[in-house]
Design a protein that fits this description.
The chain is mostly helical and about 150 residues long. The protein is built from 6 helices and 3 strands; from the N terminus they run ααβααββαα. α3 packs across α4 and α5 crosses α6. The radius of gyration is 18 Å and the shape is globular.
Length: about 150
């Protein structure tokens, strides 16, 4: 017997379609969507350790290293030895990183606008509020400064 599709299916499908659209729009910048999240986090919290970013994003240090290596190669971040703990590196946004973050934020704003166009302003506001609530309930939150 075939069961009815799960109610989450349209949400997952919509999220996949939106991520593909964002990926396509970011392609020319050389930055992937998740790397844009790293740039945004560095802008919000300032210089921080790679270990701390991995913890904040809930990913392995190796995965974070792969993402940051690409951003280093592109000149969007720097990695320096932590003066307080020589076993730790500190990542920091460069001026070029800040410039490309502006591109990322423009793409994200365009995605917001496409959702508002599709749903209308009232439903879009409800959607964004519910999405934030769901994200927080799943343990997702904006990265915090290491001392927070």
């Amino acid at each position: 017997m075939i069961r009815n599709p799960a109610k989450i299916h349209p949400f997952l499908h919509a999220a996949t379609l939106m991520e593909k659209r964002v990926t396509t729009l970011l392609r020319a910048s050389g930055v992937r969507h998740r790397q844009g999240l790293i740039l945004d986090a560095l802008h919000r919290i300032g210089p921080t350790s790679q270990r701390h970013l991995a913890k904040e994003f809930g990913i392995s240090p190796g995965s974070m290293s792969s993402m940051t290596d690409r951003l280093l190669a592109l000149g969007f971040i720097t990695r320096n030895t932590n003066a307080d703990d020589r076993r730790s590196d500190v990542l920091e946004l460069t001026p070029n990183g800040l410039a490309i973050l502006t591109v990322v934020l423009d793409v994200w704003q365009g995605a917001d606008e496409s959702i508002e166009t599709a749903l209308g302003p009232t439903k879009a506001a409800q959607f964004f509020a519910l999405a934030a609530e769901l994200c927080n309930a799943q343990g997702g939150r904006a990265p915090q400064h290491e001392d927070a």
